[in-house]
Design a protein that fits this description.
- By secondary structure, the chain is an all-beta fold.
- It has a domain at 28-37 and 68-158: Immunoglobulin-like.
- Helices cover 0% and strands 49% of the residues.
- It is built from no helices and twelve strands.
- The strands form three sheets. Strands 3, 4, 5, 6, 7 and 10 form a six-stranded antiparallel beta sheet that branches. Strands 9-8-11-12 form a four-stranded antiparallel beta sheet, with no helix packed on it.
């Protein structure tokens, strides 16, 4: 059961909802974790929860939670995804594409680092943001290993530029 509580800070109104959901058992083949648009990173605590999905080495990632990215705030949009190879000894090819209005605007095929002790391959990279127009974007990550493939998507928004304040 998923329980969600929301509060509107300006009006003080709140709402609570409960929704049943099922988590299917993990497969044994190639899989991807959720694609995360990263808002920030900080040194990880020396004692961290076991299997923290947003910890990569000595860094804890802070996910963006849907807030628009301010234009010009950064030249890049950091992205993270965990890759779970179906066969650890076989190479995995990763493709990261960025789309806007149904058109691909950027693509990269990064070289993946080695898997960690649990078999997870953590990829942290970035997509160019300096020249992106305001609007909605989608990151599509595709992993291929032998004949198997897996795909995950995430969306983010570049906010419109603020109008200059008249003097």
């Amino acid at each position: 059961m998923l329980e969600i509580a929301l509060q509107d800070r300006s009006s003080g109104a709140s709402s609570v909802t409960r929704t049943p959901f099922d988590v299917p058992p993990a497969g044994t083949g190639l899989a991807l974790g959720s694609v995360t648009v990263v808002k920030g990173a900080s040194p990880a605590a020396t004692v961290a929860p076991a299997r923290d999905p947003l910890r990569v080495g000595a860094v804890s990632l802070v996910p963006g939670l849907g807030e628009p990215i301010e234009p010009g705030a950064s030249a890049e949009v950091p992205v993270y995804v965990a890759v779970y190879p179906g066969r650890p000894a076989d190479p995995v090819e990763l493709t990261v594409a960025l789309g806007h209005d149904g058109q691909e605007v950027a693509r990269t095929t990064p070289v993946l680092p080695a898997a960690d002790a649990e078999g997870r391959v953590a990829w942290i990279g970035s997509l160019p943001a300096g020249r992106l127009a305001a609007g909605a974007y989608e990151v599509v990550v595709t992993a291929k290993q032998g004949g198997a493939s897996a795909e995950e998507r995430a969306r983010f928004e570049i906010a419109p530029a603020s109008a200059p304040v008249p003097r």
